[in-house]
What does this fold into?
Amino acid sequence: MKRTIYIMMAALSGMVCMPEADAQEAKDIIPGVSINNFSMEREGKFLNVAMDIDLKDLDVSSNCVVLLTPRLVNGIDSLDLPSVGIYGRRRYYYYVRNGIGGISGDDEKVYRASEKPDDIAYSNLTEYSDWMDGATLKFHRGDFGCCHNMLAEYDSILGRHHEAFFPALMFVQPKADIEKTRSLSGFAYIDFPVNQTVIYPDYHNNTVELSKIDDTIDSVRADKDITITSVWLKGYASPESPYKHNAELAIGRTAALKEHIGQLFHFADGIIDIDYEPENWEGLREYVATSNIDHREEILAMIDSDMEPDAKEWKIKRTYPKEYRFLLQYCYPYLRRTDYRIEYKIRIFYDVDEIRRVMAEQPQKLSQNEFYLVAKEYEPGTQEFTDVFETAVRMFPDDAVANLNAANAAIRRDDFAAARRYLAKAGDSAETMYARGALAVREKDYTMAIKCLEQAEKMGLQQATATLKELNGRRKR
It folds into this structure.
């Protein structure tokens, strides 16, 4: 089967590598300023920089300003994060009188030197850009006098941001269905008077048993998205009485049920199909095998023998009369049953908004491809994106592609236990081997990651080659 694959270049929370400063405390990084509890972490679309700035030892003269600025730098790219300005008395009133918010702009946090706190809890979310992977965070102090004149500058490095390696994930688009077919099945115990083939709806428990079939048909017949294509009925008789007579009863009683359903629902010709089993030996064997009846093994041997049905039934009756009477009373009535299966087709959905509605109300109507189409409307990693693939795998629990895509969604959110569970049912395709490699990368099991990625590469998956190259390059850093 030809499959469409899209590759999701995933972005995840990054790791912080800080060779120049301890992650929890970096005292006296520049004159008069200490940093505590520094962190720099990726949070979705943003990079969060947080720290406690200790200003207890910072002195600012009346005519000066000290501007403290965290600055991201990577080669020619740089970004100044919002500054903290500590203003001496004269400089502060000068800026107030002239309507100037701060030296660095409106985002600056301004304090009068005489009122500065001992500690400032600094936190800033910055929209993430690719150049920030590997960027250094510097902490800059600029001392200004009159007319924005720079009097002194100091720089120190707080840390470096490295993105955690997140391999590209490969979601497989399932083959679009030309026709969506489903079925509902069950069984009912329609009771008939001895040797009769006429249905009496009020006879014994027939009202309840007939409603099983009627309600199943009704559950799909009234749905505008569904067309019933077949109603299949198979009637069974129990083994007592001659085989020929039981065959006649099975045929006649199944035909009676067909007529009952036809009159009730007015199906077109050819929709209702019937079959029959003159004697339900399979059901008898299942009952005996799971019972504690005396001479169970001997009776099972007779059931499994090559004797003709009438001879077989007579031998059990004659050899084990007590057990036969027990079976006749407690088992045989349940051998006389009708199996039914309602087959239907569901219309194809093309509109994404309609697919969303159906997924929320009746997800069993959707094909895997329809789930896939709506998933593409969401950003990978969001709860909505994850919910689509998890709903799809609930509807198709044993399908390899459904499990593969659900596994990728789980890897995307670092739910490793769920990913392993889905991958166990995802088969052994190149895409599945790649997903196992991606999971191993996220779990930092690089030996297993390389093994799986190399296997996917041997199976012809080009993305595995690219991911192996990137993985090996990062491990050499």
Q: What stands out?
A: The mean pLDDT is 89. The radius of gyration is 37 Å.
